[in-house]
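Researcher: Sequence of LLM class F420-dependent oxidoreductase follows. Predict its structure.
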Amino acid sequence: MKHFTVGRDVPHVARFAEETGFDSLWVFERVLFPDPPTQGLWGIPGRPWPGNYRSVADPLITLTLAAAVTERVRLGTSVLVAPLHGPFQLARALASLDAASGGRVVAGLGTGWSLDEYAAAASAPYEQRGRFLDETLDVCRAVWGPDPVAYEGTWTKIAPSEVGPKPARPIPVLLPANSPRAARRLVDRADGWMPGAAGAARLAEEWRRLTDLAAERGRTAPIQSVLRANARYTPKPYDGPTRAPFRGSAEQIAEDLVAHAEVGVEEILIDLQSGVRDARELTDVAAAVHAAARAAGL
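Model: Prediction complete. Tokens:
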């Protein structure tokens, strides 16, 4: 958003979301906007980075501001790029936020894709991003568990120590499943899945493959699911020859919410920032979409 003040607008939007009836608040992570970028958006050659990547506040500071003015909504990351953080410091920050918020944090973690971000801020080479995420998961479980905490890995060494505060409850960890290795990591090590919306039929197929993999690997715990939907609201219904999912009027977006919810995901994170100019416009759009979703039976 072009006109957004972190200290003023984050608390305002957070209070609005809770009072309106939203169940959760989510942040994403971008640490810089290269000009020109080494690669296109998501690593796709020639694909431009969106303008709202130009200035993205630190996600955990943003959630801290939101936590201070809310009582009920969950506070999620979609996603934190694990290699841009030291594992121990990230584990402690998430634990402190969960303790402060009364057990409302949901930790969506990933490996990222931007070579420019890795060059500026990563704690491990891009080629070792999967191994680094594995170590981050290990460190989080250790730090969030009982004292004494002790760990020795490739990037992290923790002498037997007391480490607090502890989370108010076990923090759910959500991961993507964008490759066979990532899917195995999710099934074996995470609480849930964070897919991106690309149509209900594709979501259903991805969900089927993931549940089949879980059965093959002997997982008995349910897999939580939070679908990320990047929406683009238009005041009038979109009437072009084809309509991408989550593009159009509040009622059209609500139709897509219903279609994706029928696949069986537990929660849908709908990002409405694209195209809005400021916090007031964001809350107006969010109110319209929330009303349309309720009218559609969600």
